[in-house]
Design a protein that fits this description.
The chain is mostly helical. The protein contains 32 helices and no strands. Helix 29 runs antiparallel to helix 30.
């Protein structure tokens, strides 16, 4: 049985082209599709060959593929669009303009959409802007507000703001529709005319009061103007969607308005099934905020595997389980995540970190360090993971391991402020290498002089060096800036050593209320009352 040699077999060339694409080898894919186009009578093959040749900037191959596509019956609008792309790629401005004019003059249903696509993808944005102004003139634009607004938006994107304003004003005068008013409002807002923007959006809403996208755009503008109450009212009073629920939640959470959060949650629970499915993760967050952990778990369980929040929903489920005292289930959930994402290194890394953070919350610091170590086997020498493991080792009292990790972070990221501070603090807390500890924390303090955590480290280093007055002054400032248990424990110990025992006891009492199991407090009391 006779068979065609591969170079004469259309299917073989197409398979070779697709295989090359799977390897992201565009030149090889273009060559294979070019050969296939010469052998095939399918215009789609020639079109694909032209696209790949253009992507590889192969002028000769592009010309051959376009000629073949034309032979096989390509639409004039398609050919003009592709030839315009080719001319722009070659820097041939006059030819590009000619082809773009031919494109829009075909009056094809997709002509203006293709026109915009060609210019958006152009490598030279200045040249694209000149083509836009030359071709997309008011006398050539169709009787379609979508096309006018698309050209105005494109002009704004390409930095031709005067052109964009002219086309926007023309669309408003010609069509008087909701979208034209809304875009005019956005243009006014960008120009700093907030009153004018609101007036135009008001007219847009009067014409289309139930348009969810329009209300979202106006609410975003109001939020950016600081009018959060007005934005909330606008979204609250009309039809609801996953997007309106999300923005309303963000605004209410920013104000810590639990009444509004409860209302949003109740509305989601009454929403249609499709809306609930698309807001399951948001509903879980709301349930958590409202103190309904069991309901939060139910919502997180409903987040679909393909949802962009699927990973976060699993992570939050593990945290909620831990908060309920269900430690084994929490870690089982984290381990299931590691199995689910075993073939995705970045997600696997994140899943292991979830497990490590659960251990940190439980003060199981050795287990946390082991978990960070597992993550480091997935992404070796990841500075963030090495740093986190170093902190876990320090909390576990494994000072040598902690110091080694934190030094390694500084090898990976010389001068890193967080690592410098953490290493300096760890050395001071272990009462060793104090000159180096002082130098490290000073470098961090010079970089971030107002950071209360770094101030705490500086105060603790000074205490270890015997500079009690300096330590007390620094730690008082840090404690006043942030009521953190570690800072309070350090301040209390310094005050006690200075003889201010009554004040020290008051500070210790405050720390106990904040964090009864605070390690720094426990260690301080052991040192002061052996």
């Amino acid at each position: 049985m006779a068979t065609l040699p591969p170079e004469r077999d259309v299917m073989a060339q197409l398979l070779e082209g697709d295989f090359a694409l799977s390897r992201t080898d565009l030149p090889a894919a273009s060559a294979a599709y070019g050969r296939a186009a010469e052998l095939s009578d399918n215009p789609a093959v020639a079109e694909r060959a032209a696209q790949l040749a253009l992507a590889t900037h192969d002028t000769a191959a592009s010309d051959r593929a376009l000629s073949r596509w034309q032979q096989l019956g390509a639409k004039p609008a398609q050919l003009a669009a592709m030839r315009a792309e080719l001319a722009l790629d070659r820097g041939q401005g006059e030819e590009a303009r000619k082809q773009l004019q031919l494109l829009v003059d075909t009056h094809d249903a997709d002509a203006w959409r293709d026109f915009g696509r060609v210019l958006v993808n152009a490598r030279d944005s200045a040249q694209a802007a000149r083509m836009l102004e030359a071709v997309a003139t008011p006398d050539r634009l169709p009787n379609d507000s979508e096309a006018w607004l698309a050209m105005s938006e494109l002009g704004d994107r390409l930095g031709r703001h005067d052109y964009a304003q002219k086309i926007a004003d023309g669309a408003l005068a010609k069509f008087h529709d909701a979208r034209s008013y809304a875009w005019a409002g956005q243009m006014r807002f960008k120009a700093g005319d907030k009153a004018g923007a609101k007036a135009y959006f008001g007219k847009a809403l009067a014409k289309s009061p139930k348009d969810v996208h329009l209300r979202l755009a106006y609410a975003t503008l109001l939020g950016q103007s600081g009018e959060e109450a007005a934005a909330t009212k606008l979204l609250k009073d009309g039809p609801q969607s996953p997007e309106t629920f999300a923005i309303r939640t963000a605004l209410a959470a920013k104000r810590n308005d639990r009444t509004e959060l409860a209302l949003i949650y109740a509305q989601i629970k009454r929403a249609p099934d499709e809306t609930q499915a698309n807001t399951a993760y948001l509903a879980g967050q709301l349930a958590e905020l409202l103190g309904k952990p069991d309901e939060a778990l139910d919502w997180y369980d409903q987040v679909a595997d393909g949802d962009s929040h699927a990973f976060d929903a699993d992570a939050r489920s593990a945290v909620v389980l831990l908060q309920q005292g269900r430690s084994e289930e929490a870690h089982a959930a984290a381990q299931q995540m590691q199995m689910d994402y075993a073939d995705q290194p970045e997600q696997l890394r994140r899943a292991i970190v979830v497990d490590a953070e659960l251990y940190m919350r439980e003060r199981r610091f050795t287990d946390a360090a082991d978990a960070y170590g597992r993550a480091l086997r997935v992404t070796p020498d990841d500075p963030e993971l090495v740093y986190s493991r170093g902190l876990a080792y320090a909390e576990a009292g494994k000072v040598d391991a902690a110091v080694a990790d934190l030094r390694h972070v500084l090898d990976l990221k010389p001068g890193d402020v967080d690592a410098s501070n953490a290493l300096g603090y760890t050395l001071a807390d272990a009462n060793r290498d104090l000159p180096e500890a002082e130098q490290l924390v000073k470098a961090a303090r010079d970089a971030h002089p107002d950071d209360p955590a770094i101030a705490d480290s500086w105060g603790w280093v000074q205490y270890r060096l015997g500079h009690l007055d300096v330590a007390a002054q620094t730690l008082r400032g840090s404690w006043a800036a942030r009521k953190d248990g570690d800072v309070g424990a350090h301040l209390g110990e310094v005050l006690w050593k200075l003889g201010n025992k009554d004040e020290a006891r008051r500070v210790f009492d405050q720390v106990r209320k904040l964090d009864p199991k605070n390690t720094a407090l426990i260690d301080a009391e052991k040192r002061l009352h052996p």
